[in-house]
Amino acid sequence: MKKTLIPLLSLVAGLSASTGCHTETGAFPPQNATKYDLENREKFVLMDRGTQRSVTASILQETPLPDGRLQVAANLRNRDSRRIEVQVNCEFKDERGLTIDSTPWQTLVLSENGQETVRFAALNALAKKYTIRVREAR
Q1: pLDDT above 70 covers what percent of the chain?
Q2: How far apart are CA 104 and CA 52, in angstroms?
Q3: Diameter of the chain by CA atoms?
Q4: Number of independent structural domains in the chain
Q5: Which burial class, exposed, middle or buried, applies to 63 when counting CB atoms under 10 A from its CB (0-12, 13-18, 19+)?
Q6: CATH number for the domain harbouring residue 87
Q7: Is 100 domain-assigned?
Q8: What is the pLDDT of residues 60-91, one digit of tens each?
C-alpha cells in the first residue's frame, strides 16, 4: 500500500503545481468591436428602449452655414398617443468620424403623436459628419 501511495501523492502534487497559477499576459484583441457601434455609422440613434419604441426622425437636413460650419436639423416625431419627454444632443465629427464637438443635452417635450424640429450648429468648420442622439428624460 505504501509503495502505491507515495507515487500517487507525488503525481497529484505535480499536476496541481503545473496547472495552479497559470495566468495569461499580453495584449488581447477587442471582442465585439462592431456589435454596438451604431453611433459610428448612423446619423440618428435612439439610446434606450423607450425612445426606440416612441420616437422616430422623419427628416434629417444638413445645411452648410456661410462661415463653413455645419448645421443639422431633425424632425422628431412621437409615435405614441401619450405625451413624452426626451433629451436630444448632437455629436459633430470630422471626416474620419472622430468627435470634435458635442452639444449639451436639451429637453424636448413631444405631444401626443406630435412632431418638433430640433437644430444644431457645429462650433467650427471641421465638422463634416454628425450623430443626433435621443434618450428618455429622467
Answers
A1: 79
A2: 21
A3: 95
A4: 1
A5: exposed
A6: 2.60.40.3230
A7: yes
A8: 999 999 999 999 999 999 999 999 999 999 99
Whether residue 90 lies inside any domain: the answer is: yes
SS3 120: strand
Grid cell listed for 53: 419604441
pLDDT digits (tens, 9 = 90+) for 105-115: 999 999 999 99
Handedness of CA 51, 55, 59, 64 (dihedral sign): negative
Place of cell 413624452: 84
Please name the residues in contact with 138: beta carbons below 8 A apart, sequence gap of 6 or more: none
120 pLDDT exceeds 70? yes
CB atoms within 10 A of CB 92: 23
- When pLDDT is cut at 50, 70 and 90, the band that residue 23 belongs to is low
- The amino acid occupying position 126 is L
Q: How far is CA 29 from the centre of its chain?
A: 20
